[in-house]
Specification:
InterPro entries: ClpP/crotonase-like_dom_sf (IPR029045), Enoyl-CoA_hyd/isom_CS (IPR018376), Enoyl-CoA_hydra/iso (IPR001753), Enoyl-CoA_hydra_C (IPR014748). The chain is 47% helix and 16% strand. Helix 5 crosses helix 6 and helix 10 runs antiparallel to helix 11. The strands form 2 sheets. A 6-stranded mixed beta sheet has the order 1-2-3-5-7-10, sandwiched between helices. Strands 4-6-8-9 form a 4-stranded mixed beta sheet. By secondary structure, the protein is α/β, with parallel strands linked by helices. Helix 1 links the parallel strand 2 and strand 3. It folds into 2 domains: 192 residues, 2-enoyl-CoA Hydratase, Chain A, domain 1 (Alpha-Beta Complex), CATH 3.90.226; 49 residues, Lyase 2-enoyl-coa Hydratase, Chain  A, domain 2. The structure holds acetoacetyl-coenzyme A (CAA). Acetoacetyl-coenzyme A (CAA) binds next to helix 2, strand 6 and helix 5.
């Protein structure tokens, strides 16, 4: 596929997707979604890819869903559009995915960052859900994922006032995992993704699946799911290799199965 709104490349075992609509501050239109889904499916199918990084530009990770595309919508277009379910599919990617965020991550941009497994933010990053200023509300999971990530107080504050949160506040709130200088953002994301991609892929995917259960079930059910996955991990060659290497005092060489 020829990509026009994103850039796609592989750096070792890490798949990179870079949103690339500089004139619109990487606003997320249907084309961006279509291309991200294509790239994400290709990385899912590529056995050499062990982790994925999603990023934007220095100025904007993404300044939201494309307001100009949505502006003429009526209820029927908004309701019938496949936009939200497409993003649901993107959020359900099974391989580990890191968001590397510099500049604006607003509205849909913040929501897409939250769809990733964790966020590494540059010091310049600014997060917000300013949909209220447009007469609407977040529509790509923002009210739900943010409330689960940072709790009710700050989610209400951000969604009801439309204000932006800088990288430091986002880290203190638990929205982002790490904050790094802007110049180090991409290298830091690559380094983190390489570490993940060096481990057993099925073990990493099971860990991701288990953690995500924490957000949509009870503690009892979540613990049960974790226990089943933990036991299943003992059927992996990588478990034999990982534990064998520890006992033999050598570095493990995971074969990713
Ligand atoms: N959609 C479409 N175009 C956008 C955009 C968006 N979300 N954000 C920025 N752009 C465009 C601007 O229209 C402008 O284009 P033109 O040069 O053709 O006029 C270009 O990007 C540069 O933007 P600005 O001139 O506004 O840049 P700035 O530095 O002055 O301001 C900003 C930057 C504060 C991020 C400002 O652009 C802004 O407020 N953007 C909108 C943020 C927003 O409201 N996002 C939520 C969108 S709704 C949503 O996401 C719904 C959902 O949950 C699904």
């Amino acid at each position: 596929m020829d990509y026009t709104s994103i850039k796609v490349e592989r750096r070792g075992r890490v798949g990179w997707m870079t949103i690339d609509r500089p004139k619109a501050l990487n606003a997320l239109n249907t084309q961006v979604l279509t291309e991200l889904l294509q790239a994400s499916d290709a990385f899912a199918a590529d056995a050499e890819v062990g982790a994925v990084v999603l990023t934007g530009s220095e100025r904007a990770f993404a300044a939201g869903a494309d307001i100009k595309e949505m502006q003429p919508f009526g209820f029927a277009e908004a309701y019938l559009s496949d936009f939200a379910s497409g993003w649901d599919r993107f959020a359900n990617a099974r391989k580990p995915m890191i968001a590397a965020v510099a500049g604006y991550a607003l509205g849909g941009g913040c929501e897409v960052a939250m769809m990733c497994d964790f966020i590494i933010a540059a010091e310049s990053a600014k997060f917000g859900q300013p949909e209220i200023t447009l007469g609407v509300l977040p529509g790509m999971g923002g009210t739900q994922r943010m409330a689960r990530a940072i709790g009710k107080a700050k989610t209400m504050d951000l969604c009801l006032t439309g204000r932006m949160m800088d990288a430091g506040e986002a880290e203190r709130s638990g929205l982002v995992a790490r904050v790094v200088p802007d110049a180090e953002l991409l290298a830091e994301a690559q380094k983190a993704a390489e570490i993940i991609a060096g481990f057993s892929l099925p073990a990493a995917m099971m860990a991701k699946e288990a953690i995500n259960r924490a957000f949509d079930t009870t503690l009892t059910e979540g613990l049960r799911a974790e226990r089943r996955l933990f036991a299943a991990a003992f059927s992996l060659e990588d478990q034999k290799e990982g534990m064998g290497a520890f006992v033999e005092k050598r570095k493990p060489n995971f074969r990713h199965r």
